[in-house]
Amino acid sequence: MESELKDMNSNPPSSKEERPLLKSESDLAAAIEELDKKFAPYARTDLYGTMGLGPFPMTEKIKLAVAMVTLVPLRFLLSMSLLLLYYLICRLFTLFSAPYRGAEEEEEEGGVVVQEDYAHMRGWKRTVIVSCGRFLSRVLLFVFGFYWIHETRLDRDSLMDPNPKTTSAEISQKGDAATEEPERPGAIVSNHVSYLDILYHMSASCPSFVAKRSVGKLPLVGLISKCLGCVYVQREAKSPDFKGVSGTVNERVREAHRNKSAPTIMLFPEGTTTNGDYLLTFKTGAFLAGTPVLPVILKYPYERFSVAWDTISGARHILFLLCQFVNHLEVIRLPVYYPSQEEKDDPKLYASNVRRLMATEGNLILSDLGLGDKRIYHATLNGNLSQTRDFHQKEE
């Protein structure tokens, strides 16, 4: 499948005349539908359609028009005010503090930059930064329309109930874990649906995240990310040796596991976002250390607009998000997962078992697609939609 689509996107035509046009707009619709089936984890199924481009019913157009002159300006001002407030808090309480420095070498081709953060501060300053971060993140979610967040906390007893969705191996593993001494998880692992996931996890525990190198240089957000203790990486790294990133994450996971005062790290092992119905193959970064992990499942029920950040552009997504009167979020917090010795020795097995457990408890569909497939889907989809615009221009 991937090779077929790569062939479609290799050697792109330089002009409209060279581009192989489909015969009709109905053919384009069929092609897009076929793409959505092949790349189902990234396909939008809400009222707003592929890439959030509609077509929109008249009632939805009226709702959007009303929201754009009422909700959008108010929510934008409030959200920017909250962001600025938290930045000022972070600036104030780090004013006379030197940042903690982790990895010292910077690789030009990608991997690790010099890691600086304020998450290793001790005492009341750190407490204030974390408490304010959790509170303001929840307020920001409220501003975005998440007035209620339904949380379900599952214990091991509920997971051990024999049912068709639970395998005997999982029951055995959970039973062995229940007899062990409680240990602090080295990382929180979660499915990834939207940038809003970060706001929820900040409101819940204010952990560290893995972020692009450029995030640390952004106005306002840069300092906040350093106060969270983010690990900065170069996502577009061309170097085949990516051990620097894995080593840094592995070190942070081990540190969080053995030191209660160290910042907890939050990882999205899928490596990209989906439409919320699927769970992609997990990367092993969170599982290399062999420490326990805390799985969390996020689900965003919707009637009109899905907050999943899949094929829709960032600006369009934020605009439509602010236009929704109410948004919904459901959270399933699983018990800490304690790996067996076999899982500690095999991070891929460990990641796979946690993934299957999360898919079972979250009623998610397993998929073997990844970030590369998502990029192919986007590129092919953009090509088809440009042909749609050509058809409309010819009709006009």
TrEMBL record:
The chain crosses the membrane at residues 64-89, 128-149. Residues 1-23, 159-183 are annotated as: Disordered. Its EC number is 2.3.1.23. Belongs to the 1-acyl-sn-glycerol-3-phosphate acyltransferase family. It is found in: Membrane. Pathway: Lipid metabolism. It comes from Camelina sativa. CDD domains: LPLAT_LPCAT1-like (cd07991). Its main location: membrane. The keyword Isomerase does not apply. This is Acyl-CoA:lysophospholipid acyltransferase 1a.1. It comes from the Eukaryota. Pfam families: Acyltransferase (PF01553). GO terms for molecular function: 1-acylglycerophosphocholine O-acyltransferase activity; lysophosphatidylethanolamine acyltransferase activity. GO terms for cellular component: endoplasmic reticulum; membrane. Keywords: Acyltransferase, Lipid biosynthesis, Lipid metabolism, Membrane, Phospholipid biosynthesis, Phospholipid metabolism, Transferase, Transmembrane, Transmembrane helix. The lineage of its organism: Eukaryota, Viridiplantae, Streptophyta, Embryophyta, Tracheophyta. GO terms for biological process: phospholipid biosynthetic process. Residues 186-301 form the Phospholipid/glycerol acyltransferase domain.
